[in-house]
Amino acid sequence: MNIRTVGILGAGTMGAGIAQNVIEHGLSAVVMDADPAQLQRAVATIERMLARGVEKGRIDAAGAAAIRARLATTAELARIAANDLVIEAVFEDFAVKRVLYQRLAPLLAAGTLVATNTSALSVDELAEFVPDPARFLGLHYFSPAAVNRLVEVVRGARTAPAAYDRALAFVGATGKQALACRDGLGFAVNRFFCPYTNEATRLHDEGHDPAAIDQVARASFAAPLGPFAVMNLTKPRIALHAQRSLARLGAFYAPSRSLERVGEAGGSWTLADPPPAPDPAARALIADRLRAATFLPVLQLVGEGIAEAADVDLGARVALRWDDPPVAQMDRLGRDAVAGMLRPLLKRYEIESPAALIRVGTLGLRSGAAANS
Question: CATH topology for 189-372?
């Protein structure tokens, strides 16, 4: 059954972005939030983006009006439950999501597909509060959700194949690139991106300048923005919350001191402009530390079967716009060089060498098609 109507729980930044993407691709969306002001902000944001599209000649006024007509808002949970697909996009708090699913459960229509937009929480653990886990999965959009092309389609242990196929078809129909993965904390992209940003903050704890770290990070991954600049856009508070979700995986994943401090305070990072130029030794150290903190979780998630190596690089290229993604780097560097980078980190956190390390050099993309699609 094709998905034609989508209910979105939460009218925050992500919920509004998902709604905009849905209505721009010919489907209907109804956004639910208990806060009328939040709903008004979401609608105003979408209308502003449509007006900008008219101004730039991407659509005409009639087309913008037709898109806007496919958007509705509500404060009633029952109006959400009757749609073909429900996407939950509320704050990343397990208790908040649990209560919401418990309220939603008795209202759901029999054929409704249910998805969470969580970025780091366990899909399988959330599925415990859905009446039929076979129709539950993750649809993790990346910010800005209306523009970023990647969506992680996360298969839970009990997600039915037919439900997963419906979700994949929906993602494609709304102009997104699906990254297929199974459930695991952080899924494919945040499993390595969060530790990369966390390692950047550890380097800051050790006296390195954030703007200088960003400069090295951009060069190391051919990235448009460094980790501190990204966190300033998405908020360090959100980065801290995601890192805490991953901390169950061990000490390497625990948040740094400065991430705890800045995230708890609701602050941002101060970035010098122009950034100070690190000396060659410091530049090499920063680059190696950031690469090691990225390579380790990639090797772990590939070894755990969460995602294919090619899809890791797909995520890095599409969601993060890294033109030199981690698997391609590891294959180019070779096993010995990667093992050398990992050795200090493995020793520091008493981690066993990841089994997937022996596959470095054969993890590659086979062809460039997946990464460039």
Answer: N-(1-d-carboxylethyl)-l-norvaline Dehydrogenase; domain 2 (1.10.1040)
Contact 87, 8 (CB under 8 A): yes
For residue 364, the model assigns a pLDDT of 82
Residue 77 identity (one-letter amino acid): L
* CA 120 to chain CA mean position, Å: 8
Average pLDDT, the chain: 94
pLDDT band at 131 (very low <50, low <70, confident <90, very high): confident
3-state DSSP of the chain: CCCCEEEEECCCHHHHHHHHHHHHCCCEEEEECCCHHHHHHHHHHHHHHHHHHHHCCCCCHHHHHHHHHCEEEECCHHHHHCCCEEEECCCCCHHHHHHHHHHHHHHCCCCCEEEECCCCCCHHHHHCCCCCHHHEEEEEECCCCCCCCEEEEEECCCCCHHHHHHHHHHHHHCCCEEEEEECCCCCCHHHHHHHHHHHHHHHHHCCCCHHHHHHHHHHHHCCCCCHHHHHHHHCHHHHHHHHHHHHHHCHHHCCCHHHHHHHHHCCCCCCCCCCCCCCHHHHHHHHHHHHHHHHHHHHHHHHCCCCCHHHHHHHHHHCCCCCCCHHHHHHHHCHHHHHHHHHHHHHHCCCCCCHHHHHCCCCCCCCCHHHHC
Q: pLDDT at position 372, please?
A: 42
- Tell the CATH superfamily of the 5-182 domain: NAD(P)-binding Rossmann-like Domain (3.40.50.720)
- Written as six digits, the tokens of 176 are 């997104």
Give the per-residue pLDDT at 93.
86
pLDDT of residue 1: 67
Instruction: Say how far apart CA 155 and CA 138 lie, in whole Å.
Output: 7
Decide if pLDDT at 366 tops 90: no
